[in-house]
């Protein structure tokens, strides 16, 4: 587990968290921004980010592999799974992921302030909260087919999507718990247990999905069931580690009287966190749903889904760097180290920019063969090749936006970031996408250009907010928030 960056500031970690100590720490820290300090911070961010790349990509690959297997069943099956994935992401997975991100602020700052018992209370309360949220989501998914027909989707595609959505219901509950356990461990820089459990779940998922889809001939329903089984395996492995590992002894997730006020505080940050993430996620899903209204909807939906899968797969790489930034920023703010938090934010962004330039170049060079990973149809492959240059540019904009969103989670200004996402995507990006697709008849290309424009605007606004952030004030606010809480006795 990583300690706060600047050892010279450790004297401010008493249990008062005064504003004068934060200011004094920031002043002394500014004089210590040498290459040794920068190098140390890069190593700490990389220590979190590099294993998190494998962790997040492994978890996301569960759904990617399922979509790839479904794609080889036929265009109708792929279109149905694509529409179902869009709807379930909009109404379920994005909401749970967004709310779980509140722990990056709460647990991260509590860990930096060494209020370890609060971390267990926050996590326990969050698990109760998200499991309750899963119930109405499950009920909604039962009516997916009727909902899609109601909004004008093709009946055949809607039927396939309805089956897939119902079979995804068992994945909701382990997904919710998994996202919370990840953030509980992440804020303590306990990365490798997550890495090992995620890789194990992925290795388990591939043969199980193949057997369910092809051997038992369950089709898309088998793909959904395979995802659920893999998520449960991941949760079980992490649960065993959290319960018995000595590294989690101080922050153990147990029930206490402090859990109930933690639920209230979790929703205080969880709701704006969900809004912040969902507004961006929903815009991409909305584009896929709109593609179903274009001429030749099966082709447009399939190609837009492939582009979205590729963009999402890469997204988890800068997202891993953003989790490193979020963890380091929240830990340092909780400890009262304003200058160290600022340094962590910008160095993590620098590392992510280097990666995205390399990734965009590789993607552009492989544009001719990219489509074959998802479909054998030449029409689909050629369309993916046509969209690849725009896709390469959009993931560069997404990278910057993702990084600064991680800083927002670490600081705790999710509400402000939500307003940014609302303006970038729904006042600019989506209207532009609709005009290009339906007025100028650019079809799927027009939809994706609109999304890329929104991501660029989002990244510029978040970068300016980060640049003008008063880090000393944020450190004082974090310390005040953590030390307002009083630990309760644990109920064994």
From TrEMBL:
One CC-aspect GO term: membrane
InterPro entries in UniProt: MATE_euk, MATE_fam
Topology within the bilayer: Multi-pass membrane protein
Biological processes per GO annotation: xenobiotic detoxification by transmembrane export across the plasma membrane
Gene Ontology MF terms in the entry: antiporter activity; xenobiotic transmembrane transporter activity
Pfam families (alphabetical): MatE
Sorted UniProt keywords: Membrane, Transmembrane, Transmembrane helix
TM stretches of this protein: 45-62, 82-103, 124-143, 163-182, 194-214, 220-245, 266-283, 303-322, 343-370, 390-411, 418-442, 448-471
Major place of residence: membrane
Cell compartment(s), UniProt: Membrane
Family assignment from sequence similarity: Belongs to the multi antimicrobial extrusion (MATE) (TC 2.A.66.1) family.
NCBIfam families: matE
Protein name per its UniProtKB record: Protein DETOXIFICATION
Phylogenetic classification of the source organism: Eukaryota, Viridiplantae, Streptophyta, Embryophyta, Tracheophyta
């Amino acid at each position: 587990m990583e300690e706060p960056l600047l050892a010279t500031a450790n004297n401010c970690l008493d249990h008062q968290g005064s504003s004068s100590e934060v200011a004094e720490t920031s002043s002394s820290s500014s004089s210590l921004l040498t290459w040794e300090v920068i190098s140390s911070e890069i190593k700490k961010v990389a220590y979190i980010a590099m294993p998190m790349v494998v962790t997040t990509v492994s978890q996301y690959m569960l759904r990617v592999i399922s979509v790839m297997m479904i794609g080889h069943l036929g265009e109708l099956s792929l279109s149905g799974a694509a529409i179902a994935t869009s709807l379930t992401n909009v109404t379920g997975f994005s909401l749970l992921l967004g709310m779980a991100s509140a722990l990056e602020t709460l647990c991260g700052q509590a860990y930096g302030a060494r209020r370890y018992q609060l971390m267990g209370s926050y996590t326990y309360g969050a698990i109760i909260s998200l499991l309750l949220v899963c119930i109405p989501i499950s009920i909604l998914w039962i009516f997916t087919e009727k909902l899609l027909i109601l909004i004008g989707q093709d009946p055949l595609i809607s039927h396939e999507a309805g089956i897939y959505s119902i079979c995804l219901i068992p994945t909701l509950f382990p997904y919710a718990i998994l996202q919370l356990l990840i953030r509980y461990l992440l804020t303590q820089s306990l990365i490798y247990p997550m890495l090992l459990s995620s890789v194990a779940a992925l290795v388990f998922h591939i043969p199980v999905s193949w057997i369910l889809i092809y051997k038992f001939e369950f089709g898309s329903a088998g793909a959904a069931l395979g995802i659920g089984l893999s998520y449960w395996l991941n949760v079980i492995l992490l649960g065993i580690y959290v319960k018995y590992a000595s590294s989690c002894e101080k922050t153990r997730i147990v029930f206490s009287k402090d859990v109930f006020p933690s639920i209230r505080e979790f929703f205080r940050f969880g709701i704006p966190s969900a809004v912040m993430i969902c507004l961006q996620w929903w815009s991409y899903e909305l584009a896929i749903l709109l593609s179903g209204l274009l001429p030749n909807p099966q082709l447009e939906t399939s190609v837009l889904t492939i582009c979205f899968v590729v963009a999402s797969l890469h997204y988890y790489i800068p997202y891993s760097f953003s989790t490193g930034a979020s963890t380091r920023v929240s830990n340092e703010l909780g400890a009262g180290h304003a200058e160290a938090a600022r340094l962590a934010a910008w160095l993590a962004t620098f590392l992510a920019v280097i990666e995205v330039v390399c990734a965009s170049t590789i993607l552009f060079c492989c544009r001719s063969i990219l489509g074959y990973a998802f479909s054998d149809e030449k029409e689909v492959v050629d369309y993916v090749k046509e969209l690849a240059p725009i896709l390469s540019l959009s993931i560069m904009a997404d990278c910057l936006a993702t990084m600064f969103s991680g800083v927002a989670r670490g600081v705790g200004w999710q509400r402000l970031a939500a307003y940014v996402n609302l303006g970038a995507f729904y006042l600019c990006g989506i209207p532009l996408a609709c005009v290009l697709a339906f007025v100028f008849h650019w079809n799927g290309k027009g939809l994706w250009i609109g999304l890329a424009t929104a991501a660029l605007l989002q990244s510029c606004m978040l970068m300016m907010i980060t640049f003008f952030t008063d880090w000393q004030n944020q450190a004082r606010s974090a310390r005040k928030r953590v030390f307002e809480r009083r630990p309760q006795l644990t109920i064994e």
